[in-house]
Structures are given as C-alpha cells and as structure tokens.
Amino acid sequence: MSGLRFTHLDHCSVIITDLAKARAFYVGVLGLKEIAKPRTFDFVALWFELPDGQTLHLLQKPQPDTRSPRHFALRVTDVKSAREHFRDHGIDIQETGPIPHCDRFFVHDPDGNRIEVIQWLEPYNPTISGAETLDE
User: Fold this and answer.
1) pLDDT of 37-49, one tens digit each?
2) Which is nearest to 58 in space by CA: 68, 43, 69?
3) How does strand 33-35 pair with strand 72-75?
C-alpha cells in the first residue's frame, strides 16, 4: 500500500485569451467568485473559488487551446435549471451520452474550453453501473 493518498481535486487550469470575455463568462454566467492570484505570480491569471477549497485557474496566453474532448466538470444541484440558465444567456448546450443515475451536458467558454455541467441523481456505483471490464 502506497503512502500516497489524494483527498480531492485541488484545482483545474485552462487557457484563456481575453480577460474581459473570460471574466464576463466565469463571473457573469457561471457566477463564480474571483479571488486574488498568488502575489508571487509574474504572469496573467484569474483564480476563482470553488467549494471545499478547490479553485479554477485561468491562464492568459496569446492563443487558445486546441478544441478537444478535454474538460472539467462542475456539479450542480438542479441540472434542469442549469440548462435554462445557459439558454437564457444564449450559450449553446451540447447533450452527450448517458451515464447511469446522472444528467449532464456540455458548454464552452469564450475560448472554447469545454465544461461539463453534471447532476448526480444517485452516487455513482461502479459495481452496479460500471463496465464489465476495465479498458485495456
């Protein structure tokens, strides 16, 4: 047994190109609270507070990341209301394949970063809902 034990995801970082557009999306649409980045940073970054001490970091670069299936997921308590919220803000919603006992969809921020919005209707139980074998 290893002495290495993870307690939770600490943060996720994504690339942005336009601070004003990113701030408008992450504060204005997602409703996240911006917090000060570390004073030792000598580069442009926006930090946002998430529950349980987790944070989201936006790092400014001249070019956006390549679009891909990579994403981070934000858990919500009411996915139906979340869908309505994004539609009210004119943000395209991409539905996706089902996972047992959850409802989810994807949106993109102004730089094309993929964000999953997910509500677990029941906790995930790999014994009941998992694949027969692990991928090789």
Assistant:
1) 999 999 999 999 9
2) 43
3) unpaired
The span from the CA of 63 to the CA of 69, in Å, is: 18
Tell whether pTM > 0.85.
yes
User: Could you tell me how far CA 91 lies from the centroid of its own chain?
Assistant: 15
- What domains are there in the chain, each with its CATH number? 11-129 (3.10.180.10)
Give the type of residue at 88.
D
> Counting every residue, how long is the chain?
136
Q: Give residue 40's identity as a one-letter amino acid code.
A: T
The bridge status of strand 33-35 relative to strand 45-49 is: antiparallel
pLDDT classification of 50: cutoffs 50, 70, 90: very high
